[in-house]
Design goal:
By secondary structure, this protein is of the alpha+beta class. Helix content is 45%, strand content 11%. A hairpin with a 6-residue loop joins strand 12 and strand 13. The longest helix has 18 residues.
Amino acid sequence: MTQPVDGAVAVSEQPVVHHSVRRRRSRKEKPSAPSVPAPSAAENTQPQASPGSLPEGWQAERFSTQSDVDPRKAADKTPAKTDAPSVVPAQAPAPSQSEKNRSAAVNKIFLPLGDGAGIGAFWSGNDFIIVSDRATQMDTSALQGTGVFSAATVQTVGNTTIVAFHFNQLIPLEMHKQPGGWILAVRAENEARRHAVITPQAKDGGLLYPMPQSGRVIELSDPASGARLLVATSVEECLGPLLRRHKLGYEIWPSIQGLVFALEADQIEVRKGNGGAFLDVLGKDSIPVASSAEGAVADDRVDWSWLGLRSLNPAMLKEDYRRRWTQAAMQPPEDRGEARLAAARAAFAMGDAREARAILGTAIEDNPELALQPNVTFLQAASNLLTGNAEGASALANPEAGSDGVLWRGLYMARSGGNPAKAATLMAQGFLNLQSYPESLKKQIQPEIATFIARYGSDEDRSVLEPLPADGRFDLARAFMTLKAGDQDKALSMFSHLASDRKPEVAVVATEQVLGTKLANGRIRPAEAASGYEKLLFAARQAGVEKEVRHNLIAALTQAGEWPRALISVDDDLRLFPEDRIALVPQIEQILQHLAETDVPAGGAKPAELIDAVAMIESHIDQIPDGPAKGKILAGLGRKLQALGLPGKAAIAFERALPLASDDAQRAALGAELAQADIDAQRLGQARRALDETQDPGADATLASRRRVITAGLLAREGSRDQALQLLAQDESDASLDLKGRILEEQRNWPEAVLVVGRLATKNLPEVGALTPEQQQLAIRLATDAARANDWGTLDRLREWVGGRRMSAERQRIFTLLVTSPEDELRKRAQLQ
């Protein structure tokens, strides 16, 4: 390498032109050269050409036209040549008069840069910069007022040409080589951007970035940021990367043509090498750049680029972070944004997510617009996730990062309580990417990810884990793999051993699996498992797996039939993890169904269990979505309220259940219960309406009899006793006989009452054996009716049938008094005298 006469440090095998707008750090001063021109209409003093006449060397076409004519082939139609390269517009049909009257909007232009010039092109803010390693004079005046390429300037310094186009916003551009120069065009909206996967090659202690027919390397300052850039040009089409790549001491920026290196270390140089751009360092104590090319990681991977990952050892990552943090601190406040982002990425790459989050927070606070950039959002979300703030990592759920972001989407889903099977699948899809992560970061998350995939993944998902590292950090994943393979005894032994691990996140999960496996195998009862889960709650909170343990506790309590305790556990879970509200609906529904279906105590008792069940159902029923299941729970609630002597509230429950009936038969049954509750609440009109609106001609005999009895009871309440008796005349069900007997008793028609109640007693009193309290009361009722009817025959038969059986003392005294005739009483008294 030769030393230029001006004393500047050369970075190319050929003379290099240095363009410098400003510098962000102190370096050895080099002769100042003109900066990249800022495109402005005011700078173009040449007269504006008509839309249909562009200078020779510029080729353009209107929107919707198609022409890429070689200007050399159109020489016979070009004007006389001037000192500047002669150019002509694309050959197209003569414009119509209407086309002449409107501005010509172009979406493609021809740049007469020559056949052998090395070209580089990239975006700098809203400016598109094209660099040529040859001097080319071009006239841009004809482009004014022609559309997106209107604001253009050209600057020629020595043997270098810089063309700059200014746009109001970034637009998709592409470049193609043509004979005599290059085509610059607006890419179609439905056409994907082309880009290259750049794989450097370690060579001669440096890195060779392969390029087809590389040109000179040109140094200039980036107009937007002031960064020191080395643009490696290429004579042939050479696509650059799609995303910014972060290396040790330098970055590779996205480019349309050639490669653009942004240097952060003064010791790094880029020059034209044999087969591409060669990157090397100067000085004995410099960090060798070849080490940053370890592995076969594609820098165009979104996770690799956006997170600032590097294939460096921990010591070098730490040094890289120190340098970037220092550079950020030395920048003027208004220029610290990009430097802080670089420092945050370096912190994340070395495994310090907490520091990365702090740096990002400061950068975004000073420049809120940074938060709108997808790469910044992704880095901030990943930093939040690794520091335990899953709520602040929701941006990872956005599929914007594509297939390269699935690992982080899965990890976010796992930590935020999403679908575990889907989370495991996503992490399995990105597990190969994880293998190339820096060791310090991979060490933090790989065991957790491997364990989650082994626990919740499918057979295909788990296949990416094989073989698991022999490291003890993967013992829990190994135990799950053994369990999924079907060897429960060996897995149980492994989990039992890990239950005493010093790390809470391992010990708690292992203990949880021991309880679950033993419960599934019948080695412990559900109540014992529930007790074990309860004891595990405090440690689970420390290990960050409290939610999973609480879910298992709820399942064990429901399996044990301890419905009130299960519902209390659900409430505790929702208080701590409100996001579980939807996931726990099936468990709440199951618990409420069992509470609602519990039999109402006989005898009209009001035990505390009944009151507690009503309170639990009422306080949780609104968490159940409308449907037949909710209707059944409301119906059970109504029956319990009826048993508590609260017919008004019971009617409200039945009214809510009625629209949720699954069919006409269930609707008719609920209508009957609603009518009965209204009758008991003295709301006879509403009871009549409930019966009328829920009629079902197809109801079975049992339901029809039940509705008939309720209708008759309503008639009796309204004073139509004879009509009620007539309605029940052919109905011999127990409820019908009971109601007919009560109506006859109210009418004091004792002989008929004896016949009806007698038939009821015949059906319900056993021939032998003890009598239940209800049966004892029925015997006394029949005896009372027979005594009032002076039906001694019935009393004698009843005495012989029931008299010898044990009753309560009070009922026995009453029954004996009723069935004893006066003659027998007198005879007994005479014998006593």
